[in-house]
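Form 7-S
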Amino acid sequence: MERLQSKPPRTALGSLVGKQLERSETLGGAWASVAVAPVFLQGAEQAVHAGGAGAKEETGNVFLYLFQHVIPHGTGLKIDFGAVQFEVLNIQFFQVLAVVLMFLLFFPLVGRLRKEGKMGWLSRVFSGFVLYIRDEMVKPIMGEKGTRVFLPYFLFVFFFIAFQNLLGLIPHSATATASIFVTGALAATTLVMMIGGGIFTQGFLGFWKGLIPHGLPAPLVPLLFIVEIIGLLAKPFALTVRLFANMLAGHFVVLSFMGLIFYAAGGIGKLAYGVAVPSVGLAVFIMIIEGFVALLQAYIFTYLSILFIQMSMHPDH
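Output:
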């Protein structure tokens, strides 16, 4: 299944930037804007000296080109299942890389701990995260029994999201969680755990009957059932949008600051290099904040998933 991508109409200056972006399309996030800076400043200066009426319109297109870099794009690799073809996107490489890194980091740490009975500095760092998730997030909500059952799942969710978020901050990378399809799939697993856990603990009919408050007048039962179904689906929808919007917005803010340099170049030419100082400074500041947000969003997604699953399994608590 090939992905369709729409592109804005190219002007003379827009084509110049577009060609440079296509040559460096492996760059990710704000780093792509650095690659097009020289060619854009040169083209903008030529447009200003030419006195074209469309100079400002052309320089404004740079934001569209930069923002397109955040959108997942095809790698040229395709998986053929006969009648159906799937194109491999760039974000899928980093999803696989996140899982591989988790295996490469955690399995040797567990083996060393069992063999030598002591932890190195890396083991202590990750054990701190594991203990916090177990003792401060899962156990207070689900209790001892629920922790033994669900802790491996929540550990995987936290580190999988955190690794994808952090990989997206590396040059030449892409942020998988900035795609609503990725966050939607993660939220769908939470929804399956909610419904499955609720049915397992309450029974099939008991789970669906439990959505309706006891003692409700019969004419209101259909209406309240629909409202409760909407409320059930709203929980994973909130997880989807929250993670997607926060990760995407951070990249857009960085690219907006960098795009100001190129936009200013359309009006003041080489003097736009002076705009680069505050713009780059603010972009770096946002990138530092994004490092914190990467872990924060993994925590929020995991914590809310714990709450939602527990609420579905034990609605009376």
